[in-house]
Amino acid sequence: MTLPPITSPVRPRLTTLVTVGVSATVLLTVLCLLILVDHFALAYARAEAEQRLQQLSWQMRDALNNVVRKATGDVQLLAELEDVRAARTPADVRQVLENLQKTFPDYAWIGLANPDGTVYAATQGLLENVNVGERDWFKGGQDKIYAGDFHPATLLGNKLPASADPWRFVDAAGPVRDAQGNYRGVLCVHMSWGWARRLVQNILAPADRQYSADIFVVRGDGTIMLGPRGMEEQKLAADSLKLAQSGASGALSETWPDGKRYLTGYARSGNPEDASTLTWSILVRQPEELALSGVRSLEHQILALGAVLGLVLAAGAAVVARRFTAPLNLLSGIIERRLAATSGGPALPLVPQLDAYHEVQVLSRALAEMLRDEQRHLDNLRSLNEKLETTVAERTREIARKALLLERALAQEQSTQQLLQERAAELRAILDNAHDAFIALDPGGVVRDWNLQAERLLGWKRAEVIGQPLAAMMLPPLLRRAYERDMRQLAETQGGAVAAAAAAALSRRVELTLYNRDGRELPVEASLAYVPGSGGHLFIAFLHDISQRKALFASMEAMALRDTLTGLPNRRALMQALAEALRRADRSRQCCAVFFLDLDRFKQVNDRYGHEEGDELLRQFAARVRDAVRQTDTVGRLAGDEFIVILEMLQNDAAAQEAADKLQPVLARPFVLKTATVQLSASIGIAIHHPDDPQDIESLLSRADRAMYRHKQQGLQQRARR
Ligand SMILES: Nc1nc2c(ncn2[C@@H]2O[C@H](COP(=O)(O)OP(=O)(O)OP(=O)(O)O)[C@@H](O)[C@H]2O)c(=O)[nH]1
Question: Which residues form a coiled coil (predicted)?
Answer without folding.
Answer: 367-398
